[in-house]
Amino acid sequence: MIQAPDLPTWAAIIIALLVLGGSILTLVGALGLIRLPTFYARVHATTLGATAGMAAILLASMLCFSVLQTRPVVHEILIALFVTLTTPVTLILLARAAIYRDRSENAAQVPDAQGAKAEG
């Protein structure tokens, strides 16, 4: 049931590079979650890493199944559309909740309404 032997070498190389690149981008975003100092920087890094990594892996999937089935396979576009639309919305909701919490607690280093850091 494994179809990998049917995959041409040129396609296998491109697919492997796309999957590896997507994995690395996602890993860098996940490392940003560990290494960055503030919540706002952390949530931004993971959002970018997840979106960019997802794009590369879905391109690899589209290429793999299009080559194997000798017709364009584009259902991954729906997945990309869903993730691309929901990830930034989630980021915005998390950031707004964190700003609201930090302002209600009078925490230091909270962005004001114009986006500048508050003194304190």
TrEMBL record:
Pfam families found in the cross-reference section: PhaG_MnhG_YufB
Record carries keyword Iron: no
Regions that span the bilayer: 12-34, 46-68, 74-95
GO molecular function: sodium:proton antiporter activity
Highest taxon, organism lineage: Bacteria
InterPro entries documented for this protein: PhaG_MnhG_YufB
Keyword Nucleotidyltransferase on entry: no
Keywords: Membrane, Transmembrane, Transmembrane helix
PANTHER family in alphabetical order: ANTIPORTER SUBUNIT MNHG2-RELATED
Protein name: Multicomponent K+:H+ antiporter subunit G
Organism: Sphingopyxis panaciterrulae
Lineage, highest ranks first: Bacteria, Pseudomonadati, Pseudomonadota, Alphaproteobacteria, Sphingomonadales
